[in-house]
Design goal:
four-stranded parallel β-sheet; 16 strands; ten-stranded mixed β-sheet; about 20% strand; about 425 residues; alpha/beta; single chain
């Protein structure tokens, strides 16, 4: 029997509610030369029965059964059974657009790509409505960045705009076999090391702006829904990725590890008020950042700045760094702004407030100020260009290590309040 061009690998664990929709979306792909490898990870609901029913009537589907080991181990099991030149991964509670495999495979073949990453939509589990139409960071790429070959070692900032999940891409199996790339066996956060292992070794990566996957959010039974219970997996994942980066140049290593910490902070912010797990998450994150802060000392990047400071960024990082600068340092913080700021006003945080203006308005009021960029790193270049267009001569991207230190102090205060 000839090998299929694409293997679609699907880990399954207690997914009875959504499994049929997921399988139907894969079986109904316009690209027919596929095999579907479903790895049941010890389900205790009717998922196994559903797989048996589909396997009986769909010759391209192979069901594999294993004891419960987690999604990473299930995906690895699927890789071992896969015969396709390219691999796709899906989660059992998501579903694919009808032309997903066709679009990814066409792109991969035309550009001889090792990996193709695409866009996706988020679907609310309860309402069924699309709540996020596209991965936000992709908006910071230009149209010329899509549909061309990118090498991570040469343009790391481009591939930092893609999501780390495995289910929005297609991967050349030969690449995975050559470098022994597999998912780790953590209970959750088992895909991040896979993503960066692929980027580090791929010679030809491509980003597509096509939205090809519908990803469910607010599903407490999903892999993401289990994250709060196993938050320690974030730190174990960080250590695994740290080892992968050992031979990389320092700038690439820093880009990868900084992104890991930024994502941890985002999840900690989401979980820290949870009645059952919040205190544990905060304490774990505080201890981890304390360890990281001992290894770095970039505080002078901010504290050594002379003159007034404007913080550009009022999102997650701005909410951390503005109170820190205002209350914990001697910096002359005069205000803030964001890409959405158009009118003069006041931005409140906790018990304090700062003046906000557009960057163009700040140029009139404080032409000699230093602009401190407090956003995710993928946005730094565009913001720096906007600041220079407004004729600011001093533009300083905020170091992740300064954010780490500021957030650690914020968590210390949160733990004191819990007591």
């Amino acid at each position: 029997m000839a090998s299929p061009k694409v293997s679609v690998i699907l880990p399954v664990y207690n997914a009875e509610k959504y499994l049929c929709q997921c399988l139907d979306s894969i079986i109904g792909q316009s690209f027919a030369d596929i095999e579907i490898i479903c790895v049941d990870d010890g389900s205790t609901d009717s998922s196994r029965d559903i797989l048996r029913q589909y396997e009986a009537r769909e010759p391209r589907l192979l069901a594999v059964y294993q004891q419960n080991q987690g999604a990473g181990a299930a995906r690895n099991n699927g890789i071992e059974h896969a015969r396709g030149e390219y691999l796709c991964f899906m989660d059992a509670d998501d579903y694919m657009a009808p032309d997903a495999v066709m679009t990814l495979h066409t792109c991969a073949v035309q550009l001889d790509a090792d990996v193709v990453k695409c866009d996706y939509c988020c679907v609310d589990t309860v309402s069924g409505e699309i709540v996020e139409d596209g991965f936000p960071a992709l908006a910071y790429l230009t149209k010329d960045d899509f549909g061309r070959v990118i090498h991570f070692h040469k343009e790391p900032e481009k591939l930092q705009c893609t999501a780390v999940v495995p289910w929005n891409g297609m991967y050349r199996k030969e690449l995975l076999e050559k470098y022994g790339i597999r998912f780790n066996h953590l209970r959750c956060v088992n895909d991040r090391s896979f993503y960066f292992d692929v980027l580090i070794h791929a010679e030809r990566a491509v980003i597509s702006d096509a939205r090809l996957v519908y990803h469910r959010v607010n599903n407490v039974q999903s892999l993401v829904g289990q994250r709060i219970k196993h938050f320690e997996c974030h730190f174990e994942s960080y250590r695994i990725i740290e080892k992968l980066c050992r031979e990389l140049p320092e700038n690439l290593k820093k880009i990868i590890l900084d992104r890991q910490i930024a994502d941890m902070i985002r999840w900690c912010e989401q979980f820290k008020h949870d009645a059952m797990y919040g205190t544990s998450v905060v304490r774990q994150m505080r201890d981890f950042l304390a360890e990281i802060c001992e290894q770095t000392n970039d505080e002078e990047n901010v504290l050594g700045v002379d003159g007034p400071i404007i913080v550009y960024g009022l999102g997650q990082i701005g909410k951390i760094i503005i109170p820190y600068l205002k209350e914990k340092t001697d910096c002359d913080l005069i205000g803030g702004c964001s890409s959405n700021t158009t009118d003069d006003g006041v931005w409140r945080y906790g018990t304090g407030e700062i003046t906000i203006r557009s960057i163009e308005s700040w140029k009139k009021h404080a032409p000699d100020a230093v602009v401190l960029i407090a956003t995710q790193e993928v946005y730094h270049r565009e913001i720096a260009e906007r600041c220079r267009t407004a004729s600011f001569g001093k533009v300083l991207p905020l170091s992740q290590s300064v954010t780490n230190r500021a957030y650690m102090l914020m968590l210390e205060e949160a733990l004191a309040a819990f007591r």
